[in-house]
Amino acid sequence: TDDPASYLGDACVCPKCGGHHLKANSDILDVWWDSGVSHTAVCRHRDNLEFPADMYLEGSDQHRGWFMSSLMTSVGAYGVAPYKSVVSQGFTLDGQGRKMSKSLGNVIDPNKECDTRGADILRLWVTSVDTSNDIPCDGTILDHVGEAYRRFRNTLRFLLGEIEGQFDPATDAVPYDELLPYDKLTLARLCQVHDQVSAAYESYRFNVVYRTLYDYVITELSNGYLNATKDRVYCGEKNGFERRSALTVWAQILSMLVHDLQPILVYTTDEVMAYLPASLRDGQEYAALLDWYQAPWTAEEYEPYLAAYDAVVEARAAFTKAYEAAVADGTLTEKTTQAARATLTAPVELHDLLAGELGCDLAEPFVCSEVEFAQGEELACSVEPAHGEKCPRCWNFRELGEDGLCPRCHDAVAALEE
To answer: CB within 8 A of 67, min separation 6: which ones?
Structure first.
């Protein structure tokens, strides 16, 4: 405890006898009073701290306890609240919603879970739930979180596999305004996701951070953009414009995920940092030392692309449904989307978005060989076998040359042989 004179000043001197040798008593006067005036004893009398505090964090039972006594004493003494924000959290229950206790034998030891599963999985579990309420936890729940963690980790590893040692944004990236249309749409969506994540962090809604990033990674990246652009990245000419356009966005996706996941997956993002190109590390060894991610486009710049992006997602869902039906009824005997030729119709508003200047070649997000597109009364899609023959290198159906390859693959192989 600090010397009383250090924070009482002249108030510790007796006006009659001049005595000033006060001894701080460690006895509790009143639990709510003593804790409630910590804003004075701690924040106002320590040079490295500020008053009001940025945040008070405690359990939900403190709304009638510490939060309230702190507010009352601070307003009474200084006329202001002692905090800028209050975050309360619930209590951890077992998988059946019961309070954990030794007598029930249902206590989960976080230290043991960290040793067994890794701290990042426990951190991911905390962010996957609304901690303002009481939350259940058991081995089964943590197993499910472990599956989600592996999805994140596999996506990071997948991106690193094509970027590490092969693509440096500082020298190889395509200017954003020159990206191919599908890449521009995806970059715009990336910027929007980052803004949504940033807003959720600002308001301490960590479960929203988790859900936003999880849905984005699984639904829109792994099953969407990354799967679609693998063709360009794997089969395109190594230094060709189309491949570099895709990898420019891949690098931004990787950078955004490292930044936005760092507060949660602290050890995993540090692993990634060891393999990032220098231009994405900003001279840092640890992800926690990175500045917050700066999105390539502002909201004013990316918002015009979002309607076209949503239109592509909607059209792709229609294709997926039609493709699955074509496989089920035997229309397609080869069960790869590249073996399909799609015929798509869309109502005028959706058609104009897909066919407009911000639209893209739908064969790429569909991962099929050909798309015939026209305006119609409703969104509808049918699937038939693709024209041409299967290229053994990229698996797309095209007119093959004398070497048995499609024109794109012929050029890519020729470039490798030069």
So the answer is: 56, 58, 86, 88
In a domain, 117, yes or no: no
Average pLDDT, whole number, for the chain? 92
Residue 261 and residue 327 in one domain: no
Mean pLDDT confidence for 275-300: 93
Contact of 277 with 170, CB cutoff 8 Å: yes
Radius of gyration of the chain (CA): 29
Pairing mode, strands 397-398 and 389-390: antiparallel
Least-confidence region, from 103-117, 180-194, 232-246, 334-348: 103-117
Q: Nearest-CA neighbor of 273 among 362, 408, 163, 386?
A: 163
The domain in which residue 235 lies consists of 152-297
| Burial classification of residue 214, based on how many CB atoms lie within 10 Å of its CB (0-12 exposed, 13-18 middle, 19 or more buried) | middle
pLDDT band of residue 26 (cuts 50, 70, 90) is confident
Same domain flag for 44 and 163: no
User: How large is the average pLDDT for residues 381-398?
Assistant: 94
Q: How far apart are CA 123 and CA 156, in angstroms?
A: 18
Q: Domain check: are 245 and 368 in the same one?
A: no
Residue 404 covered by a domain: no
Residues 6+ apart with CB under 8 A from 135: 90, 91, 92, 93, 129
State the DSSP string of 107-126.
---HHHHHHHH-HHHHHHHH
User: Which residues, listed in sequence order, are joined to residue 53 by a DSSP beta bridge?
Assistant: 83
> Above 80 in pLDDT, residue 63?
yes
Question: Sorting pLDDT into bands at 50, 70 and 90, what band is 225?
Answer: very high
Vertex 239 angle, CA 296 and 294, to 5°: 10
Say whether both 287 and 170 belong to one domain.
Answer: yes
Mean pLDDT along residues 173-180: 96
Residue 147: pLDDT over 90: yes
| Separation between Cα atoms, residue 131 and residue 27, nearest integer Å | 34
Label residue 1 by pLDDT band (50, 70, 90): low
Domain of 375, CATH number, reads 3.30.2320.20
Q: Are residues 272 and 335 in the same domain?
A: no
Residues 285, 195 share a domain: yes
Among residues 86, 69, 71, 72, the alpha carbon closest in space to that of 34 is found at: 69
Residue that the structure tokens 């995993």 belong to: 268
Q: How far apart are the first and last CA of the chain?
A: 76
